[in-house]
Amino acid sequence: MLFLRRHLVLLLRAAASPLPSPSPIHHRACLLSTSAAPFSLEDYLVDACGLSPAQARKTAEKAVKEASKKASGALSVSRLNSAGNPDAVRALLCSIGLSPADIASVVAADPLILRCSVKIIKPRLLALRDRVGLSPPQIARLLIVAHRALRCSNVEANVEFLMSFYGSFDKVLVATKRTSSLLAVSLEKLIQPNIALLRQCGVPDIPQLCINTPWVLTYSLERVKEFLLRAEQLGVPPKSPMFKYAMGVVTFNPREKVAAKLDFFKRTLGCSQSEVSLAVPKLPQILSLSDDNLLRHFEFLVNEVGMERRYILERPVLFGLSLEKRLVPRHYVMKVLQAKGLLNSNMSFYSLAIMGEENFRLKFIDCHRDSVPGLADDYAAARAGAVPSRV
Q: pLDDT at position 92, please?
């Protein structure tokens, strides 16, 4: 940190000089070397890495901010004092097959890769290529998503295992985007034991669960056992197809928040325990919806559509549909068609609401283009938030 402070003092002195000086951002992106001329990271990103000036300015600012937070000594800072280390890193990336465009994308996502020790990251990158079998474009995509993990640890074993577990490299990327620590935690102590526990409990489609909530693989075994118990307590058995969603709810929301949501159903919506027990196992995600969202859906379905409370809770998917873009516009279409005697009396609003958009337009708008002129425009206006007055 002393080394960094000295550099910052020099920067401040330079900024106070009466001589013409670059922009403030340019100053922050420059770390002085032992030579007379300063090394400009911002200029380097443009000239050597191919970033646009706007990209370079933003990336350089991010790099200096992160370096200031995490610098652990003179060595880590000095690697950005000149073009030496950045050039070595770029040469390494080029040697394993990354294109100039790939390198530009990687550096824009993680400018601190330019200060990495080539001796440390070279074996890791080679292992990804030679042991795991990743192509250069795949390595570039992984570096963009999981650069912190690769800078801190060997990730090839985790990548190799997870590709087999999830079934593809693309799915590993999806999971890693959701929790970057997935590639850094212990394979033997956390990931594999947690998968074994889920299998032991009879959880179906474990890879899909672990794409929805990949962080479950990074927790201790005891904590995962707690999550399994809490999910079951919501009335969702481990073998249910909805269990993966229940796990998502309990891992993302603390016990107190889930309890408060259940209380909201009872206190504000007037639901009994048995009625709540109808809804949660069918759509555990309703426990993650905001109180305002739930209340507005409930009031519309009861007051405007005329549904009974129990009927709604037996069909909780209604809470997951957009009120403004789906439920209100389709209810408008339903009322127009009913008023003109063009809707089968057995057709329920629930059936209209859950229908796919293309199918709904074909059956209830396009086929009435002549008998109800302007219906398509009215429906589009309703989806935009302006519900027409005619019915």
A: 97
Cα dihedral 42, 45, 46, 51 in deg (nearest 10): -120
The answer to whether residues 171 and 211 touch, using CB atoms and an 8 Å cutoff, is yes
Assess contact for 312 and 301: CB atoms under 8 A: yes
The CA distance from 88 to 97, in Å, is: 15
SS (H, E, C) the chain: CHHHHHHHHHHHHHHHCCCCCCCHHHHHCEECCCCCCCEEHHHHHHHCCCCCHHHHHHHHHHHHHHHHHHCCCHHHHHCCCCCHHHHHHHHHHHHCCCCHHHHHHHHHHCHHHHHCCHHHHHHHHHHHHHCCCCCHHHHHHHHHHHHHHHHHCCCHHHHHHHHHHHCCHHHHHHHHHHCHHHHCCCHHHHHHHHHHHHHHCCCCCHHHHHHHCHHHHHCCHHHHHHHHHHHHHCCCCCCCCCHHHHHHHHHHCCHHHHHHHHHHHHHCCCCCHHHHHHHCCCCHHHHHCCHHHHHHHHHHHHHHHCCCHHHHHCCHHHHHCCHHHHHHHHHHHHHHHHHCCCCCCCCCHHHHHHCCHHHHHHHHCHHHCCCCCCHHHHHHHHHCCCCCCCC
Q: How far apart are CA 348 and CA 343, in angstroms?
A: 10
What digits encode the pLDDT tens for the residues 133-190?
999 999 999 999 998 898 889 999 999 999 999 999 999 999 999 998 999 999 999 9
Per residue in 355-383, pLDDT (tens digit) is 999 999 999 999 999 899 999 999 999 99
Distance set, CA 219 to CA 109, 149, 181, 197, 213 (Å): 27, 17, 10, 12, 11
- In angstroms, how far is CA 328 from the centroid of its own chain? 29
The residue extents of the domains of the chain are 1-116, 185-252, 264-320, 323-391
CB 235 within 8 A of CB 277: yes
Establish how many alpha carbons lie within 13 A of residue 57's alpha carbon, considering only the half-sphere containing its beta carbon.
8
359 vs 352: CA distance, rounded Å: 10
Q: Is the pLDDT of residue 73 over 80?
A: no
Phi and psi dihedrals of 30, rounded to 5? Answer: -110, 130
Which single residue is written with the structure tokens 């107190």? Answer: 256
